[in-house]
């Protein structure tokens, strides 16, 4: 049977814990290029690839809890990745957890479970 799983990776970059509200930064983790965004609502992880034309959010900014792409100023909800502009698709997001030993980001994957064992 196919099952959805989550692989969690700890963030060992000290810039993330020091990120201020309305700040964002690029982070490469497990081969994924992410954009971490801190708002009043918390810390969020998005793919660092604007769905409009595939460019990085580097040089963008946060305003009113939204991440704004610097290229054409489309805005996205960092929590859901939802495009607030209406003329592009959403940004992929990853769950973020604050645990006792640090910040973790989740990467979903699908595996096949056979007799109670996940095959990969
Ligand atoms: S590339 Fe981001 S809004 Fe166009």
Short précis:
The protein is mostly beta strands. 3% of the residues lie in helices and 49% in strands. The longest helix has 4 residues, at 14-17.
Number of strands: 11
CATH homologous superfamily grouping: Rieske [2Fe-2S] iron-sulphur domain
Count the DSSP helices.
1
**Which class do the helix and strand fractions yield?**
mainly beta
What value does the average pLDDT take? Answer: 94
> What name does CATH use for the topology?
Rieske Iron-sulfur Protein
Q: Tell me, what is the CATH class?
A: Mainly Beta
- Unreliable runs: none
Written description of the protein model:
There is one protein chain. The protein is mostly beta strands. It has a single domain (2-118), classed as Rieske Iron-sulfur Protein (3-layer Sandwich). Helices cover 3% and strands 49% of the residues. The protein contains one helix and eleven strands. The protein has one helix spanning 14-17, and strands spanning 2-11, 24-29, 32-39, 42-47, 61-63, 66-68, 75-76, 93-94, 96-99, 102-114, 117-118. The strands form three sheets. Strands 1, 9, 10 and 11 form a four-stranded antiparallel β-sheet that branches. Strand 9 and strand 10 (102-114) form a beta hairpin. FE2/S2 (inorganic) cluster (FES) binds at residues 50, 52-53, 55, 69, 71-72, 74. FE2/S2 (inorganic) cluster binds at residues 50, 52-53, 55, 69, 71-72, 74.
